[in-house]
Amino acid sequence: MKIIADANIPFVKDCFSSIGEVELFPGRQITRDIVGDAECLLVRSVTRVDSDLLAGSKIRFVGTATIGFDHIDIEYLAKNNINFASAPGSNANSAAEYVIAGLFEIGRKYKIKLEGKSIGIVGVGNVGRNVAKKCAALGMKVLLNDPPLQRASGDAKYLPLEKLHGCDFITFHTPLTFEGIDKTFHLAGEKFFKSLKAGCVFFNASRGGVVDTEALKESIRSGQLETTILDVWENEPNIDTGLLEMVDIGTPHIAGYSLDGKITGMIMIYNAACEYFGFKTKFDVEDFSPQPDVLQLKINPNSRDEQDLLRGVVEKIYKIREDDSKLRLILDVPAGKRGKFFDDLRKNYSVRREFQNTEIIATENTEVTESLSRKLEGIGFKVKK
Question: Is 236 considered catalytic here?
Answer without folding.
Answer: yes
